[in-house]
Amino acid sequence: MSAINRVIINTGVTYAKALIRALITLYSTRVVLNALGACDYGMYNVIGGIIALLPFFNAAMTFSTQRYISFNLGRGNVTYIDAYLSSMSFMLALETLGLSSCAVNWPDVEHKEREMHSLLGLKDYQRPMMCMAVLYPDTEGMVAFSEKRQLDSIRRYD
Known about the structure:
Blueprint: H1 3-75, H2 78-96, E1 100-105, H3 110-120, E2 130-135, H4 151-154
Antiparallel strand pairs: 1-2
């Protein structure tokens, strides 16, 4: 099969998939709207939108982590990668113990390095990689809640 024929067939298949997807979306929207009602359908779309954003954030974190590792591998800074991976494991271990943690990247700025060396009393061959706060989470902390009002209490007809 020639390259032109493959392009034509792939284009046709792509358009057919898009048409089928559009038809399924139109039909499922009608079914969901009838099942949930207008008020709950809006909430359904909000929750669906948030869930649709999660893969974006996952990809952003994955790409930034990969860039960080690749950048430091290219510069020959294997110690940064070791510190990054060990701190990740340490944070997961803290989580299993019921502790919360917050990692703060340490900037590679000379005068800040000197300040940290003197503050921690580090030797010349030691170097800070990151700071980490470790604490017990607030067990009585509450999640914000807003009670749903009945539709009749907020809807009126003039």
